[in-house]
Amino acid sequence: MRESLHPRRIATLCASLALTATLSACEDDDSVLFPGVSREVNEQLTVLHDSMTPFQDVESAIAAGYGVIVEHPTDGSRCLAHHDQGAMGFHYLNPDLADDAVAVSSPEALLYEPRSDGSLELVGAEYVVPFAVRSDTETPPVLFGREFSRNYTFNVWALHVWVLRDNPNGVFSDWNPTVSCEHADAVG
Question: How far, in Å, CA of 159 to CA of 128, rounded?
């Protein structure tokens, strides 16, 4: 004898099937990973995201050449924050990559947010081209279909990319309001 389904059970099953179909569609839709950018840029951002996996541990990043912690030239702070726009965190620079070439899977700097226990969490990347290599009067470098910005504080062309921490201002915004330097003093 077949069991009849109660209308509430039917509604629950339908909702479950709809959710499953939506999730399946999302897995095939790269635009869900990084909203607001093209499929091609999503693919490039995914390459960057995957290339950063080994650097979740800052010691691995240092061993790979990201051994220079960038300090602000006027106040000496190592964790870069803006009073009302958020932060960037600690920048671990690989000086061997700071030339005129930029490559998706090789950002010049990795961005880490300090945690209360003194550890660092990888949250993004920054691509830089020094003005000494490409003058600020030349055309800007381009990556991900975006022109780099002139950063006169550090005398570089710069492009921030938030692939490991959501940024409500956009994946390419300089500052991220979800990143904080609150625990910078805990980092040794």
Answer: 7
- Token digits of residue 175: 């500052």
DSSP secondary structure, the chain, as one string? -PPPPPHHHHHHHHHHHHHHHHHHHHHH-GGGTSTTS-HHHHHHHHHHHHHHGGGSSHHHHHHTT--EEP--TTT--SEEEETTTEEEEEEEE-GGG-SS---TT--SEEEEEE-TTS-EEEEEEEEEEETTTS-TTSPPPEETTEEPEEETTTTEEEEEE-SSS--TT-TT-S-BTT---TTGGG--
**35: pLDDT strictly greater than 50:** yes
Determine the pLDDT at residue 53.
Answer: 95
Interval 74-91: pLDDT, tens: 999 999 999 999 999 999
Residues 6+ apart with CB under 8 A from 69: 78, 90, 91, 92, 93
Q: Which two tokens stand for residue 149?
A: 């910005």
Q: What is the pTM of this model?
A: 0.82
Pairing mode, strands 146-147 and 120-130: unpaired
